[in-house]
Amino acid sequence: MSSSTKSANGAKIPAVTRPSASILLISPSNQILLLHRVQTSSSFPSVHVFPGGNLSTKQDGMIPEPSGKDRHEDSKVYRIGAIRECFEESGILLAKKKDDPERLLEIGDKELYAARHAIHQNTINFQDWVQSKGGFPDIDSLIPFTRWITPPNLAKRFTTQMYIYFLPQANNSPESTVESLSAKSEAMIANPTSDGGVEHTTARFLPPWEWLELSRAGKVILFPPQFFLLHLLAPILCPRPSQTVIDPAELARQRQKVVEFVKTGDPPWTEKCISPIGLLWKQDDGRAVLGLDKPGLELEGSTRKGDPERAVLVDFQKGGPRKVEVVWKKDVFRIDRASTGSREKL
Predict the structure, then answer these.
(1) Distance CA 103, CA 87 (A)
(2) Taking phi first (over 0 means left), then psi (-120 to 50 degrees means alpha), and beta for anything else, what does residue 70 get?
(3) Structural contact between residues 94 and 165, judged by C-beta atoms closer than 8 angstroms
(4) Which of 46, 67, 58, 53 is nearest to 19 (CA)?
(5) How many CA atoms lie within 13 A of 107 on its CB side?
(6) Cα–Cα separations (whole angstroms), residue 156 to 1, 116, 150, 342
(7) What 3-state DSSP class applies to 321?
(8) What CA–CA distance (Å, rounded) separates 127 from 34?
(9) Please, are residues 15 and 3 in contact by the beta-carbon 8 Å criterion?
(10) Is 168 in contact with 149 (CB distance < 8 Å)?
(11) Which residues are CB-neighbours of 66 under 8 A, at least 6 positions away?
(12) Distance from CA of residue 105 to its chain's centroid?
């Protein structure tokens, strides 16, 4: 069931969540990759997203059943799906060499493009193809970084596992796929689809704080999960002000700080499960306040939890979310109470 239906008594039945996975891909210079979806895209048109997408039983392995709690847990099938989707969408193959596990698998551009197309069309299996090239998907280097479950009131729902992946700092990455995308100017990426539509047009690595600034200026559209995760990493990765060229030792220290950060919290960020729920409307600018503490309909009554301390402000418009901001939840309610009190005195 891909959209909400009604039960025999007329009650609305929430859509089943589609398993998906995305990667916050961090460049050798500690910038984060976002892909720009075109306006005609069937899902999330015109927005900037992390590389990722829906899992495939044929490509990734057995997907947990909708009724199972393991459908909402990190597992091998989510990790394979994340790496496959990253490859299909960006051309960056997160696979290691069997005979040299410290190095990424290197394959020529033409062969990469052909494989992306064939895998997208399901004419070859991603894992079999990687193995035939003397490699294996680097699932062990993926770091879980929250799971997001779409609220039950929306027609399309997902259960999305987010991961962090650090591209190596040493010069052992294929120059054609990594360094070309590391440039500040947008790089056109190959399109693996053959149905005449284009899902992603450009790919760009930028520091987290710069993505946030572009969003605040209305130059890119970010959905709350992407904005929120970039907000968490902005003080750590390439924080501003920053010199143009950062010392490799400092880049390594930043990466270690990220690894340490995701282990903090109760539960840690590696295990947090978030289903944004509307709490109230801000009276001063009309933005919705989204709470992040609930794990979602499917996990009610479980021990899974989200973030009880923060909230997201967002103005949902027809063209996508605008004026997204992350705030401390206590400050939102304090300001709202003060605003209400002021109006009552008038």
Answers:
(1) 17
(2) alpha
(3) yes
(4) 53
(5) 23
(6) 10, 26, 8, 40
(7) strand
(8) 24
(9) yes
(10) no
(11) 16, 17
(12) 24
Cβ(216)–Cβ(231) below 8 Å = no
Whole-prediction pTM: 0.87
Q: Are 324 and 218 in contact (CB under 8 A)?
A: no
**Mapping DSSP to helix (H, G, I), strand (E, B) and coil, where does residue 114 land?**
helix
- What tokens were used for 98? 């069997």
Reduced DSSP (H G I as helix, E B as strand, rest coil) percent helix, strand, coil of the chain, to 5: 30, 25, 45
Answer yes or no: are the C-beta atoms of 260 and 233 closer than 8 Å: no
Quote the Cα angle for 58-62-66, to 5°: 115
Over its length of 346 residues, how does the chain's per-residue pLDDT go in tens digits? 445 555 555 567 899 999 999 999 999 999 999 998 765 455 555 789 999 999 999 999 999 999 998 999 999 999 999 999 999 989 899 999 999 999 999 999 899 989 999 999 999 999 999 999 999 999 999 999 999 999 999 999 999 999 999 999 865 444 444 444 444 444 444 333 322 334 656 889 999 999 999 999 999 999 999 999 999 999 999 887 656 667 899 999 999 999 999 999 999 999 999 999 999 887 678 899 999 999 999 999 999 999 999 999 999 988 889 999 999 999 987 755 555 544 333 3
Residues 149, 158 contacting (CB under 8 angstroms): yes
Report the C-alpha gap between 63 and 61 in whole angstroms: 6
Q: CB-hemisphere CA count at 13 Å for 167?
A: 27
